[in-house]
Design goal:
Blueprint: E1 12-21, E2 24-34, E3 38-43, H1 50-58, E4 65-70, E5 73-74, H2 80-85, E6 88-91, H3 103-107, H4 125-138, H5 155-168, E7 173-177, H6 185-200, E8 204-209, H7 212-218, E9 221-226, E10 229-235, H8 241-249, H9 252-281
Parallel strand pairs: 3-8, 3-9, 6-7, 7-8
Antiparallel strand pairs: 1-2, 1-4, 4-5, 9-10
Length: 282
């Protein structure tokens, strides 16, 4: 298998990928394809395996089973830097921003422009402000004052700054870890709009979420994880929002539980009747 990227190949293709931590199997048999200009949604409750999947793609933990292809080239990452070099950027739920630092500084955090290669040379602040403003506007984000601390922006706006930053620094694949989890309806809508903008700009987006409604608004492909395995893997035209919601809520297991509770309700009513009859006889 080639180690050289191939034109036209999926940005990410995982085949039967698994991950074990000693005797604990966190992921098993995961298949996931991420194409340019598409949003692949990975859904699941806490403990389903979403975080482990992110860590494999982001270079934090190497997979122990299966194959990971990036633009057709086989990869087994040992560090996040390797993933970044391949154009895979991750925006985590707890954003890597410095709250008291200006918006433009956070945009360039760790990748500041300098006037020369001389150590400790002064930063090109004017250029960085201009670039940050232009790149944010490309995503439809207008920040009135780039000098304000990023903590003064809403949660949705901070997410969008992180997305725009990843796009500017060459991301081909954007992994979003629960970007709407702690946001209200309005702020979630702002983030979803920029997820769609990233997709329309030609990026492949991996949208990690536990919210099927948010996923269905922007998704092209849906995978639901449960206990480290995929229980649903369908494209948008193969699944409805109702089915996606039902599967996230438990699917067949939920239906079985509902049936058991109904039976229990019947038995409870029978017991109540017997108790009432006994009391009357007394």
């Amino acid at each position: 298998m080639s180690d050289t990227p191939q034109s036209g190949a999926p940005l990410i293709q995982m085949t039967e990928v698994g991950k074990s931590y000693g005797a604990i199997r966190a992921l098993k048999g995961i298949n996931l394809t991420v194409n340019a200009g598409e949003v692949a949604c990975v859904l699941g409750d806490n403990g389903a395996g979403k975080s482990t999947l992110i860590k494999i793609m982001a270079g934090l933990h190497p997979h122990t089973e299966g194959t990971l292809l990036v633009e057709g080239a086989e990869r087994r990452y040992d560090s996040p830097r390797q993933a970044l070099e391949d154009g895979i950027a991750t925006v985590y739920q707890d954003l890597a921003v410095v709250g008291l630092m200006e918006v433009w500084r956070n945009f360039f955090l760790g990748s500041e422009l300098v006037r020369s290669k001389i150590p400790l040379a002064s930063m090109s602040i004017r250029d960085m402000k201009a670039i940050a403003d232009a790149e944010l506007r490309k995503m439809g984000i207008v920040v009135k004052d780039l000098d304000q601390p990023i903590s003064e922006l809403s949660g949705g706006q901070r997410q969008c700054v992180a997305i725009a930053r990843a796009v500017y620094f060459g991301a081909k694949v954007l992994i979003l870890d629960e970007p709407t989890a702690a946001l209200g309806v309005k702020q979630s809508g702002v983030v979803l709009k920029y997820v769609a903008a990233a997709r329309d700009a030609g990026l492949g987006v991996v949208f990690i979420t536990h919210n099927p409604h948010h996923a269905y608004m922007v998704g092209d492909h849906f995978v639901i994880l449960k206990l480290g395995q995929a229980v649903l893997d369908k494209k948008r035209d193969e699944v409805t929002l109702d089915e996606l919601t039902r599967q996230m809520a438990g699917g067949d297991e939920l239906a079985e539980l509902s049936h058991e509770l109904q039976e229990l309700g019947g038995r409870t009513e029978a017991i109540r009747t017997v108790v009432q009859d006994t009391r009357r006889r007394r």
